[in-house]
Amino acid sequence: MNNEKNKITNLAELKVGEIARVVKLNIQDKRIKRHLLDMGITRGVEIKIKKIAPMGDPIDVELRGYELCIRKADLEQIEVEVVK
Questions:
Q1: Longest dimension (CA), the chain
Q2: pLDDT tens digits for 61-84?
Q3: Which of 48, 28, 41, 22 is nearest to 59 (CA)?
């Protein structure tokens, strides 16, 4: 069994190709939290890391059949469980 599987971390720590399930959004700014929720980043959704910009920010993720580019600072506040 892979030790990385079921590991709890933040979304910014994942590598390209990894998939994780959202556990919790630890975002204090209510506007940003609402924006991410509106884009479909909710508890239980699976997110795959597609691409990381050359300087490490932003990060391109895939969820619910579409892709988003999100700032690394925001991804650091999304707690996830690694599934693949």
A1: 39
A2: 999 999 999 999 999 999 999 998
A3: 48
38: three-class secondary structure by DSSP? helix
C-alpha to C-alpha distance for 22 and 68, rounded to whole angstroms: 15
Kindly report the CA angle at 7 between 5 and 50, in degrees rounded to 5? Answer: 70
- Beta bridge partners of residue 10, listed in sequence order: 79
> Which 8-state DSSP code applies to residue 58?
S
Q: In what order do the strands lie in the sheet with 46-52?
A: 8-10, 78-82, 19-25, 46-52, 59-63, 66-70
Distance between CA 31 and CA 64 in Å, rounded?
22
